[in-house]
Specification:
eight-stranded parallel beta sheet; about 525 residues; binds NADP nicotinamide-adenine-dinucleotide phosphate; 19 strands; elongated
Length: about 525
């Protein structure tokens, strides 16, 4: 069982009372008293703190973290051992001592003797590396258990890239005893969530954003609300959005809400893959080589849509002809044998959004598409397939001309938007996206009634372009419609079932209103 543990890092017992109450109310299953945060550290002060924590009826870990391993105060080593020993005597369920300090002088003897006096108490022997991976994490794990076989080894390190997380997963998957292994930092975020699937003894979450005690620690509300922590078990199938950045993606909220509503044991994660094709390939190989991790598929966003396409070609997986023609894959499915197939659902999402608002056949409609990136490619392909007359406008001329040539369209630079004359206008650039909400790719005087204006940007929900278009009397389509359309098609690929478009839309509005 994984104990969802909230660190209580406070100056005194008074402050602790309030935090412990919030932790319990939020659903904590264990508390970690970080006594190194106390303003005045003494055996007496720790006993008072422990007494306060015990009132919660939750199991309590007591630690007095060494500054060299992320601790707060610069406390003397002997004092810290004295605190741990007295905590065992005062009824702490678990104490956490840094492995290197356990080995020093008389520390081992003192701790073992305290544990003999309270046989129910357990010992975590921990090692932290804030710089990066351990030289040999497996060897460290074995060493800890050799030193004290009843210990709970805790190995925590900073992941400088998401690919650094996999050795933590390997260790958890192969463990024979209770152990705690995860990676810190933004790149290590998924390891804190997957910890439950892999039966880590503990995963840590903070009571709120202001009280995180380690980089990348998420709040208990996020863990339970966004990632449906309570439903995660060893059978949970994993999905996620691969991109860089992905922190503000709506994907986790939207897909997890729909998985939950459909009663599916699936979890969707933000998968921040930094770097280019080499890092993307390594990530995919890490996932495919570990079928026990249970990854079933991914959404793919900037900057990896083309990397995903190349990966499938090289790996010999199925590539949907539409995705190949567009030159971008935004959905990956991994089957039970580890074969990966690639699809593009931006096309369907955008075309459904356009068709449902146009109110007429697209054949012969004059369309202006601003942008020549991944989204523009899908939209240009869709409009060209439907027989619309498309003119592409893009900042980088060579890129725009290439796209125009591929799909038999006209091309012009962004300067030519002043003489815009089209029935359908599509913004497929990031102009106007939060935080640059006062920007628009088209001057207000170029927008006319009778136009249909579609902005793929969905944050904010109503962009300046859409506001200006409305004022000019044009019909507007927001980016949320496309987002929901492409997410619905992804949900079908992930699950074989229809998603809930209404729930997706509500979730997006909810997320965006919380952000603003
Ligand atoms: P991308 O492949 O990186 O392409 C970005 C495009 O925006 C390029 O054409 C780029 O021009 C242009 N651009 C960026 N900044 C610009 C600036 N300051 N001035 C002029 N042009 C600029 O990205 P993408 O995946 O196509 O995404 C583009 C937009 O579509 C984003 O806003 C994204 O949120 C939106 N989108 C929405 C959905 C949805 O479901 N609603 C789905 C996918 C994408 P250059 O070629 O000159 O660099």
């Amino acid at each position: 069982m994984t104990n969802l543990t909230i660190p209580i890092a406070v100056k005194d017992a008074g402050e602790a009372k309030e935090q412990i109450g919030r932790a319990k109310h939020g659903g904590a299953q264990m508390l970690e008293l970080r006594t190194d945060y106390l303003e005045e550290l003494s055996v007496e002060a720790v006993k008072v703190l422990l007494g306060e924590a015990k009132k919660s009826d939750l199991p309590v870990i007591v630690t007095c973290r060494d500054k060299r391993e992320g601790g707060e105060g610069d406390w003397d080593g002997e004092v810290r051992i004295e605190i741990l020993v007295s905590a065992v005597e005062a009824g702490a369920d678990i104490i956490d001592c840094e492995y290197r300090n356990f080995l020093q002088g008389e520390n081992q003897t003192k701790i073992k003797s305290a544990l003999e006096g309270n046989p129910a108490a357990r010992l975590i022997l921990s090692a932290h590396n804030f710089e990066g991976k351990f030289d040999d994490i497996k060897a460290r794990y074995i060493e800890i258990l050799k030193a004290f076989p009843a210990a709970i080894p805790k190995l925590v390190y900073t992941a400088n890239h998401i690919n650094d997380c996999f050795e933590a997963f390997d260790l958890l998957a192969g463990k024979k005893v209770d152990a705690i292994v995860f990676a810190m930092g933004q790149a290590g975020l998924i390891s804190r969530i997957i910890a439950k699937k892999l039966d880590s003894f503990v995963t840590f979450a903070s009571v709120d954003g202001a009280n995180a005690t380690a980089p990348g620690q998420i709040t208990i509300d996020e863990l339970k609300g966004l990632y449906h922590y309570d439903q995660i078990n060893s059978e949970t199938e994993l999905y996620g959005i691969i991109g860089s950045p992905v922190g503000h993606s709506m994907g986790p909220a939207v897909h997890n809400a729909c998985f939950d509503k459909a009663g599916l044991n699936k979890l969707y994660l933000p998968v921040h893959v930094d770097g280019g094709k080499a890092e993307f390939d390594e990530f995919m190989k890490n996932v495919i080589g570990r079928e026990w991790l249970g990854f079933g598929g991914f959404s793919v966003t900037i900057p990896h849509k083309q990397n995903a396409l190349e990966f499938i070609k090289e790996a010999g997986g199925y590539l949907e002809p539409l995705a190949e023609r567009i030159g971008a894959v935004n959905t990956l499915i991994i089957d039970q044998s580890g074969k990966v197939s690639g699809y593009n659902t931006d096309y369907a999402g955008a075309m459904d959004a356009i068709r449902s608002s146009m109110g007429r056949e697209l054949k012969g409609v004059s369309a202006a598409v601003i942008g020549a990136g991944g989204a523009a490619r899908a939209i240009v392909a869709g409009l060209a397939d439907a027989g619309a007359g498309v003119k592409i406008y893009n900042r980088t001329v060579a890129k725009g001309e290439k796209l125009a040539a591929e799909f038999g369209c006209a091309f012009a630079g962004l300067g030519d938007l002043t003489s815009l004359d089209a029935e359908l206008v599509v913004n497929a650039t990031s102009i106007g996206m939060s935080p640059n909400v006062d920007a628009s790719p088209v001057a207000v005087e170029c927008l006319k009634s009778g136009m249909v204006v579609f902005d793929t940007v969905y944050n904010p929900i109503e962009t300046k372009l859409l506001r200006d278009a409305k004022r000019a009397g044009a019909k507007t389509i927001g980016g949320v419609a496309m987002f929901v359309g492409q997410a619905m098609a992804q949900f079908k690929l992930f699950t074989g079932q229809e998603g809930d478009a209404e729930l997706m839309g509500e979730t997006i509005f909810d997320c965006l209103s919380k952000q603003s």
